[in-house]
């Protein structure tokens, strides 16, 4: 029964959630390509663009919890389509900007409308999947982050090249319109396609629905029995938590630095057309997606997190340092630079799986809610700092070399912090203390950051 039900649920839910997440990350990819022409048309400096790319995360953080509560109250069946519709309209409005003020305000609006999406996805998945399957399910959805770069770059290049001037509209404005329209249509499709919870699953038989409802309720009861009460004070006493918070801050800088600046960097070196830049920018994301899946599987099979995380960060550092040195000493060597950026992206994306396996295998209850809030907050800071630092350093030095080198240093520090963690970390049951970490009955997969937060809210 389990194999049949899980297969049906996966076929029904994961593709549509993957597509929705893909549209989410295409928004971030599209901004980096729109900047190729938008910055020139509107007179934006590297500093202005960097601030605008990063300011998104201020409202993304501020509205995350309210949007999550909103989705839980009205249900994911209504909440997810509503979020998609809101951010589709906000993203489409980006085509109307004419000034720096418009740019900043609309980036704030996009951040607010998009903030509840991934917490809502995690909450929705917990209604359907067993705990040991959550990490794999979420990883499938999150490969959209790499796929968005693989397909987003070529699509953006084609749209900006062949629609430029159509109906009197500039290329980069078409890019925002082309993103918004399918997102809005997807919102209405999801409204009729999604089932709110297992008891209302139209694609399952009555027996299958009852079996799934019983399993999910049993898991919820087990978690209620195992979760300890702690909260913020308990989380603040966990030494290892501060280590991974530092890792996530630096990781986010490099991650969003790549997302928002890769096309501009490649354009500055290649001097090629937008369509060519779009296609060659897909290579780093292609490598990143493969590395993300391979390292997550290796980490899950071996139940080892610390070294997987440290090695991935070291690979990313080598890529960033290599790109900086090549650009400094050899100038416009596109193939060598592209190779180094692919190595950097592979290392950065590969960190995702083993990283999230650590806190989700240890934290529980209110301590989990507080711990994940701290981690997510630092990720938001990194999301702002990464694009901002690239813009600021590029404006000051006239080159991307300093920013690439800085990200390399960040990744070296990530590797060092990873090695400071206990060797068996990430292979534990939920516990209350960083002094006693049992190593049996571990959670098997790399689960997402908001899973336990949403579960904790649901159990109250």
TrEMBL record:
State if Transcription is listed as a keyword: no
Classify the main location: membrane
Domain of life assignment: Eukaryota
UniProt-recorded name of the protein: Member of major facilitator superfamily MFS_1, containing a MFS domain
Q: Which organism is it from?
A: Chondrus crispus
Compartments annotated for it: namely: Membrane
The portions of this protein that span the membrane are 50-71, 78-98, 104-126, 138-162, 174-194, 240-263, 275-295, 307-330, 336-357, 369-390, 402-421
Q: Which UniProt keywords apply?
A: Membrane, Transmembrane, Transmembrane helix, Transport
> Which GO cellular component term is one of those annotated?
membrane
């Amino acid at each position: 029964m389990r194999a049949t039900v899980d297969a049906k649920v996966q076929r029904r839910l994961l593709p549509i959630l993957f597509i929705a997440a893909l549209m989410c990350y295409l928004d971030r990819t599209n901004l980096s390509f729109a900047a190729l022409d938008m910055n020139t048309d509107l007179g934006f400096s590297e500093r202005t663009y960097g601030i605008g790319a990063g300011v998104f995360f201020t409202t993304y953080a501020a509205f995350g919890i309210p949007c999550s509560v909103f989705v839980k109250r009205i249900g994911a069946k209504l909440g997810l389509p509503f979020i998609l519709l809101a951010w589709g309209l906000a993203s489409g409005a980006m085509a109307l900007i004419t000034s720096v003020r418009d740019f900043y305000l609309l980036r704030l609006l996009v951040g607010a409308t998009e903030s509840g999406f991934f917490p809502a996805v995690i909450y929705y998945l917990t209604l359907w999947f067993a705990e040991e399957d959550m990490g794999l399910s979420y990883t499938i959805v999150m490969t959209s982050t790499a796929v968005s770069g693989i397909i987003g770059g070529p699509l953006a290049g084609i749209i900006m090249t062949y629609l430029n001037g159509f109906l009197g509209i500039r290329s980069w404005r078409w890019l925002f319109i082309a993103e918004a329209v399918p997102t809005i249509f997807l919102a209405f499709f999801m409204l009729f396609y999604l089932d709110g919870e297992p008891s209302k699953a139209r694609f399952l038989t009555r027996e299958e629905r009852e079996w799934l409802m019983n399993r999910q309720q049993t898991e919820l009861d087990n978690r209620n029995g195992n979760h300890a009460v702690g909260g913020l004070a308990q989380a603040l006493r966990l030494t290892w938590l501060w280590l991974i918070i530092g890792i996530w801050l630096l990781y986010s800088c490099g991650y969003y630095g790549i997302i928002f600046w890769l096309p501009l960097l490649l354009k500055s070196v290649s001097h090629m057309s937008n369509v060519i830049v779009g296609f060659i920018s897909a290579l780093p994301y292609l490598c990143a997606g493969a590395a993300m899946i391979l390292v997550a599987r290796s980490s899950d099979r071996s139940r080892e997190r610390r070294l997987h995380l440290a090695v991935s960060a070291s690979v990313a550092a080598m890529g960033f340092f290599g790109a900086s040195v090549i650009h400094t000493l050899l100038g416009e060597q596109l193939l060598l630079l592209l190779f180094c950026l692919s190595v950097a992206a592979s290392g950065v994306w590969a960190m995702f799986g083993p990283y999230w396996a650590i806190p989700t295998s240890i934290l529980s209850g209110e301590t989990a809610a507080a711990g994940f809030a701290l981690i997510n907050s630092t990720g938001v800071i990194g999301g702002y700092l990464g694009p901002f630092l690239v813009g600021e350093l590029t404006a000051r030095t006239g080159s991307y070399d300093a920013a690439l080198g800085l990200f390399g240093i960040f990744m070296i520090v990530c590797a060092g912090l990873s090695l400071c963690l206990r060797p068996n970390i990430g292979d534990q049951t939920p516990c209350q203390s960083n002094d006693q970490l049992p190593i049996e009955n571990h959670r098997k997969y790399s689960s997402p950051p908001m899973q336990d937060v949403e579960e904790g809210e649901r159990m109250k």
